[in-house]
Amino acid sequence: MAPLLRIVCVHGYRQNERSFRERTGSLRKLLRKRAELFYVSAPLRVPPQPLAAAGDGAQAVDSEGDSRGWWFSNPEEESFNALDHVESCRGLEESLETIAKAMIELGPFDGIMGFSQGAALVSMICALRQQGDPRFQFNFAILVAGFRSRCRLHGHFYEEPIALPSLHVFGETDRVIPGELSQQLSTSFVNPVVLTHPGGHFVPASAPQKQVYFEFLEKFQK
After folding, report:
1. Bridge partner list, 92
2. Cβ-based neighbour number of residue 205 at 10 Å
3. Structural domains of the chain, count
4. Which runs of consecutive H residues, i.e. helices, occur in the chain?
């Protein structure tokens, strides 16, 4: 039997590694004979905010008060909203270093998976990998409810098509990250695999998605 694939998992805004692990329990169970999932927390602490103003991830707030984020689109307020067009942001380099450190300490990894803001970060990491950044070594990416960052400083990540096998998963009724944003992100990749589901802002792991996950991962089983 082939060894388990090792996948590093990047949570969404206002989550952390523990809350994301809990929310992906069904996925871990679904993939238990194919992959082992490892989780990393973002370095930025998100201050408490009213739910209505929470932005990306508002439907998946960490209940233990340790809300984290990968970058702030509004540095002054230490907040993030995926829909905001901004000139600058804060925290991305620190977050890239956090993932790079995890790849050294927990890796090596076969793949990387991101959810929501985490998926947006993963897309940037994929671009850096293609550009030859030695910090990021993996063979595939899974992006759930992803989107392109609308920060002007991040535009260079989307200039060249990313020739890395990728699976893009998003919900048809997602009110946090509209499906068209995830579809747009998938066009940044060469020959992306796209999986839609009828639900909202979460990582799906029910019977209708099972075969797509399996067929995608089978390509990387040794």
Report:
1. none
2. 18
3. 1
4. 17-23, 25-30, 92-105, 117-130, 179-186, 207-218
> Residues 15-32: pLDDT tens digits?
999 999 999 999 999 999
Which residue shows structure tokens 């919900």?
171
Known catalytic membership, residue 116: yes
DSSP 208: H
pTM of the model: 0.93
Query: Is 156 annotated in the active site?
Result: no
Distance CA 30, CA 19 (A): 18
User: Given 11, 168, 197, 201, which residue is catalytic?
Assistant: 201
Angle, to 10 degrees, between the axis of helix 117-130 and the axis of helix 179-186? 10
Would you call 162 helix, strand, or coil by DSSP?
Answer: strand
Q: Give the pLDDT confidence of 133-149 residue by residue, as tens digits.
A: 999 999 999 999 999 99
Catalytic: which of 41, 116, 149, 188? 116
Residue 133 to residue 77: CA distance in whole angstroms = 31
Any idea which residue has 């540095």 for tokens?
75
**Contact assessment for residue 42 and residue 50, using Cβ atoms and an 8 Å cutoff:** no
CATH number at residue 124: 3.40.50.1820
- Does residue 95 have an active-site annotation? no
